[in-house]
Amino acid sequence: MKPGFRIQDSGFSDESWLDKVNWSSDGLVPAIAQDAATGRVLMVAWMNREALRLTFQKSEAVYWSRSRRKIWHKGEESGHIQKVLEIRLDCDSDVILLQIEQQGGIACHTGRQSCFFTRLENGVWQPVDDVLKSPDEIYKQSN
User: Tens digits of per-residue pLDDT, 113-133?
Assistant: First the structure.
């Protein structure tokens, strides 16, 4: 566990730290998931107050799904849970950075390590990372 990250299993109940976040008008904040070992950005998602509080409590990434309009525990369907080692807030207090350990090595619903698998090359977007596991295989249990 990295210094500065405090797990809320010791009866810690003061949630005033949530008030320090500069939430958007719709009550959200972008959250970047970064591999703690390599520094690679794996994904960007959104959090509301409840998602950030749950992330802190569980030491696992919990996001707000804007499309489904509900809390989303990363890995709840795929098994690709993100263990949170550290939570940081940027200088403007409007972006969260999660230092994580990605379970299963796959963060993207496309079956890739990172959601940032497309690179601009000579004016054309090109996928540059391999699919590690087919999405059909990842999500077959939920069909």
Answer: 999 999 999 999 999 999 999
Domain region containing 97 = 16-105
| Domain of residue 50, CATH code | 3.10.20.810
Query: 1 is written with which tokens?
Result: 């566990």
Across the chain, mean pLDDT equals 91
**pTM given for the model:** 0.88
Cβ atoms of residues 52 and 65 within 8 Å:
no
CB 43 within 8 A of CB 114: yes
| 20, pLDDT greater than 70 | yes
Alpha-carbon dihedral sign for residues 69, 73, 75, 81: positive
